[in-house]
Design brief:
The chain contains 7 helices and 8 strands, in the order H-H-H-E-H-E-E-H-E-H-E-H-E-E-E. Helix 1 packs antiparallel against helix 2. Bound molecules: zinc ion.
């Protein structure tokens, strides 16, 4: 597989959880009057909550890509489509890893996992482009020309980037091969001819 976080990842999360519990206990010690039993009960439930979060996060690609969504005829989640292309609010977008690139939140989560898993395989995946607002699509069309006129830009308001559902990746040949082999495990497909950098996110239909 090569994608399992494995025991090291889980241990790393547990260390993180333990440090958060210590922080909580420190906070609670600061608020004084609570009885010891209340404190430990709270810590216990906090621990359970953090642990279930950690386990959920450690399901990695499988967890993100197994969710299903109501999709329109273009494969765009209907909730997202309602906002309009290039007009997706910040609340529906998520950052990819520690970059400033944003995608529709589930796509961002899945790409973050994919990049981390590739890294464990010794493969570096960079990002050159991600969500594009309507204004950014207009600007790109002006600079690169429309597909319909032999250029490299979609008609503004139609780009998959405007849904936060596509990313342009910076891939060397090893990384290109890796993403071609594993991309679909994370919901990413190469779907534009002559644009091997363009990867669209395809969520599962409900
Ligand atoms: Zn693209």
């Amino acid at each position: 597989m090569g994608h399992d976080v494995g025991i090291e990842g889980v241990q790393g999360r547990i260390v993180d959880i333990q440090s958060r519990i210590i922080a909580l206990q420190t906070q609670q010690a600061g608020t004084a009057t609570k009885s010891t039993s209340t404190t430990s009960a709270t810590s216990g439930s906090q621990f359970a909550s953090y642990l279930s979060d950690a386990v959920a996060q450690n399901t990695g690609a499988t967890g993100a890509t197994n969710k299903t969504y109501k999709l329109n005829d273009k494969g765009i989640p209907t909730d997202l489509a309602a906002y309009g292309n290039g007009k997706i609010p910040a609340t529906a977008l998520g950052k990819v890893g520690d970059t400033n690139h944003k995608l529709w939140a589930p796509a961002a989560e899945s790409l973050t996992t994919m990049i981390a898993d590739a890294k464990r395989d010794g493969v570096t995946i960079g990002i050159t482009d991600s969500y594009r607002s309507y204004d950014e699509q207009v600007d790109l069309a002006r600079r690169k020309g429309l597909y319909s006129q032999g250029g490299l830009a979609a008609k503004p308001g139609t780009s998959e980037h405007g849904w936060g559902m596509a990313t342009d990746l910076d891939l060397n040949s090893k990384a290109q091969a890796w993403v071609r082999k594993h991309g679909d495990e994370y919901g990413f497909v190469e779907n534009v001819p002559r644009e091997p950098w363009h990867w669209a996110y395809k969520p599962k239909s409900a």
